[in-house]
Specification:
- This protein is an alpha+beta fold.
- It has a single domain, classed as 3-methyladenine DNA Glycosylase, Chain A.
- The protein has 6 helices and 10 strands.
- The chain has helices spanning 2-13, 30-37, 129-136, 144-148, 151-158, 162-165; strands at residues 19-20, 41-46, 49-62, 93-98, 102-108, 116-127, 177-181, 189-192, 206-209, 225-227.
- Strands 1, 2, 3, 4, 5, 6, 7, 8, 9 and 10 form a 10-stranded antiparallel β-sheet that branches.
- A hairpin with a 2-residue loop joins strand 2 (41-46) and strand 3.
- Helix 3 (129-136) packs across helix 5.
- The longest helix has 12 residues, at 2-13.
- The protein is globular.
- The structure holds a DNA duplex.
DNA sequence: GCAGTGATTTGCT
DNA sequence: GCAAATCACTGCG
């Protein structure tokens, strides 16, 4: 009980201060933008307050115009009603339903008209931990990594749905959903193959903050390489 | 390990 | 049109 109260106070005391990432940040290819998102804050402004987490794991999904074919990407076969957001301007949220019960959130990137997306796979909870636990249907003393470690979990924790958030512009000042650079410095970035997919399983397009406890998936997945940004 | 769940797309008529 | 296959997941055993 004592511990939960302490977490609640420290989270509430924190302010989200930093620079809203501009449109130009997202105008490059997914494999270039993806590692740059690590360490940034994903913030959802709700009527109940702010819920935010630090991005610790992402995956790049390449568009059909890219040199490397990516059959795992939703945009692989061209635009459809579901994936049209990916073919629009960069810096927008592409939220879709999967397996009948989960949502996943991508950030669109590359220039307008060229598809590209980055799946946000895991966050480190930073602000609104009690609300995250409520949204996830967990007790307030649930382990932090159960809140936002996994693409479905983080959407549930932040209260993101396709109906309410698909197509939102993340670069607008008044957007309820934003990505903010608070100058947090990260150490090592590990590059691995993507997980949870059937096609194009060999492409090294998953980026994680190396060793971070909130990263999802198998702990023993060997990195293809590690670099310091 | 695998069941649960439903939207989405593809491939037939 | 309609049926079948697919799916970037999670939670339970």
């Amino acid at each position: 009980m004592e511990k939960e109260a302490k977490i609640g106070r420290s989270a509430a005391a924190r302010q989200i201060k930093g620079r809203l990432l501009p449109r130009s940040f997202y105008e490059a290819s997914p494999e270039l933008v993806a590692p740059c998102l690590l360490g940034k804050l994903l913030a959802h402004h709700t009527s109940r307050g702010v819920i935010a987490g630090r991005i610790v794991e992402v995956e790049a999904y390449l568009g059909p115009h890219h040199n490397t074919p990516d059959p795992a990407s939703h945009s692989y076969r061209g635009p459809t009603p579901r994936n049209q957001v990916m073919f629009g301007p960069p810096g927008h949220a592409y939220v879709y339903a999967i397996y009948g019960m989960h949502f996943c959130m991508n950030v669109t990137c590359d220039v307008d008209g060229v598809a590209g997306g980055i799946l946000i796979r895991a966050l480190e909870p930073v602000v609104g931990l009690h609300q995250m636990a409520r949204n996830r249907g967990l007790g307030v003393n649930a382990a932090q990594r159960l809140l936002t470690s996994g693409p479905g979990r983080l959407c549930q924790a932040l209260g993101l749905t396709r109906e309410a958030h698909n197509g939102l512009d993340l670069t607008k000042r008044n957007s309820p959903l934003q990505i903010i650079d608070d100058k947090n410095v990260i150490c090592d970035v590990a590059v691995t193959v993507r997980i949870g997919i059937r096609n194009a399983v060999d492409l090294p397009l998953r980026f994680t903050i190396s060793g971070h406890t909130c990263v999802s998936g198998p702990r023993n997945l060997a990195p293809k390489r590690i670099f310091t940004p």
